[in-house]
C-alpha cells in the first residue's frame, strides 16, 4: 500500500523491545508488504484483538495523516477503521508505541496500540514534540466533556444572576433550603473557583515540599489550565537545580519500581546527579516547564543504557504534556505528611 509509508527505507527510531512486540511486528510486516487498499473494518472492530494507530508527519512538523487498522483474518491482515469506530467500541490507548523515521524524506511515524478496556492505560502523550499529541481518544473525549460542562455551568451562572430575588414557585417568599443545597452541590461556580485558587495558590509558592519540581509542575499545570495568571517563572529559575531534578526523576523511579528497588534507586540517584552535571542548563528565556523537560530528556538519553529508563521514560515525560501523575502526587503527599507529623511530635 504505497501511501502508508513514504518509502521502504524507514528505520526504527530509538527501538526498544516491548511486551507487545509481536503485535507491532505483525502490523509492520503487513504494512510493508501489502499493496492492496485495506478493507473497511467497521463491522469487525468490536471483535478485534487490538487496533493499530499509524501517525504520519513531517519530522518536527505538522501531522499529515492519522489512520487506524484493526486485525483481520486471524491477525494475518489488517482492515482500516475510523476514529469514531474506536470511540464507539470503547477502545483505549495502551502504554506502548514504536517510532520510525525516514531520513531521505524527512518523515516521522508513530505506531500506537489500542485495546478494549486495557489494564495498562496510556493517559498522556510522552513528548509534545512527537505526533499524536491531541488524538488520545479517551483523554480527548474527557477533555471535551469537561470543557462542555464548564461552558454549561457558566451559562447556568449567568441565568442565575438574571433571576429576580424572590421565593420559590409556591409564592411563599421563603427559599427552599433543600433545593438550595442540592443546587449548590450540583453546580460548580468556575469564576468563584478561580478566585479562591488565586487566593490560595500563592501561599503554595513558599512551601514546595520534599519534591519542589513536582509541586511546581503541578502549580504550573493548574495555572495554565485555568488561566489564573499567577507569576511563577521566578520559582522555576530558583528551583531548577541538579538535586531537585534528581529528586523529581528518582521519585518516579521509586513509584514504578516499588519498595524492592531501594538499592537500584540509590545507585540511580548518584548516576542521575552525575548525568545532570554533563547537561548544560539552558540560560535563555525558555519557559520553566519546557526548560525542565529539555533537561530531563537529556538526562534520560545519557542514562539510556540503564534498565529503569525503558520502564520510566514515557511516564516521566508524559507529565509535561498533560498533568502530573496522580499516583506520584499521592506518594509524595504521604511522604510529606509523615515528615510534618514527625516534626510536630518532636
Topology record:
Layout: E1 11-12, H1 21-33, E2 51-58, E3 63-72, E4 77-81, H2 83-88, E5 91-102, E6 107-116, H3 137-162, H4 177-186, H5 190-204, H6 212-225, H7 233-239, H8 242-257, H9 262-277, H10 288-302, H11 307-318, H12 326-345
Antiparallel strand pairs: 1-5, 2-3, 2-6, 3-4, 5-6
Biased composition (Polar residues): 169-181
Biased composition (Basic and acidic residues): 143-168
Region (Disordered): 143-181
Q: How many domains make up the coordinates? A: 2
DSSP strand tally = 6
- Please give the largest β-sheet: 6 strands, antiparallel
Strand adjacency order, main sheet: 1-5-6-2-3-4
Order of helices and strands: EHEEEHEEHHHHHHHHHH
- What gyration radius follows from the Cα positions, in whole Å? 24 Å
Average pLDDT confidence is 73
Low-pLDDT stretches are: 119-143, 163-173
SS summary, helix count: 12
Shape: globular
